[in-house]
Structure formats: C-alpha cells, structure tokens
Amino acid sequence: MAKPFASRDEADAALSAFFEGIRKLRRKHRVREVSVETMVTFVEGEKHPAIISSIFNGDATLHVPMLINALGRAQRDHNARVAESVVRAIGGEP
Q1: Are residues 21 and 51 in the same domain?
Q2: Full residue range of the structural domain in which residue 80 is found
Q3: Are 15 and 51 found together in one domain?
Q4: Which of 42, 46, 80, 84 could form a disulfide with 94 if both were Cys (CB 3.0 to 4.6 A apart)?
Q5: What is the mean pLDDT of residues 64-77?
Q6: 21 and 52: one domain?
Q7: CB neighbour list of residue 51: distance below 8 Å, 6 or more residues apart
Q8: pTM for this model (two decimals)
Q9: With b meaning 16 or more CB within 10 Å and e meaning fewer, what string describes 17-39?
Q10: Consecutive H or E run containing 32
Q11: Model pLDDT, residue 94
Q12: Could you give the 3-state DSSP secondary structure of residue 38?
C-alpha cells in the first residue's frame, strides 16, 4: 500500500476514484457526514513527493467540528502511545 504511484497523474486519478467510491458508499449506506483525509506519494525523479488531500460530504457547517473531534481523539491516542513508550523505557508495565 505504501508503494508510490508512478506519476502525479496516476496518484491524482487514484484519489479521484477513491473519493468517488467514498461518495457512492455514503449514499448507499445513508451516512450523513463523511470527512476523509488521505496521503499518497508518487515518483518524481529520485524523490517521492506526497499529496495530502481531503474531502467532506454533508452539512458543511459540521466539517470543522468533526475535524476538531478527530484531532482531539488523535492527540489522546498519540499521548497514550507516548506514555506507554516512556513507561516501557523505564522498565515498567504499560
């Protein structure tokens, strides 16, 4: 999955198809709001630049509150992993 796309055009096409699939699934399963963050890489000479992209489908007034909620959960999970690593580093049990 982490293999870079052969070109930016290929990466863009894959993201477009992926986002269209998300829109179809949203309609099929009647999901009210959907926020998706993605990152893909592609080959450009010797480099592998990243494309970070997102879509939101639903009530636009809920986009920011949903992202704030996701950020809070991500920070909580990250902090728990860091705390677990520190405990293990000093010889304790998580």
Answers
A1: yes
A2: 59-94
A3: yes
A4: 84
A5: 97
A6: yes
A7: 8, 11, 12, 15, 38, 39, 40, 41, 42
A8: 0.79
A9: eebeebeeebeeeeeeebbeeee
A10: none
A11: 61
A12: strand
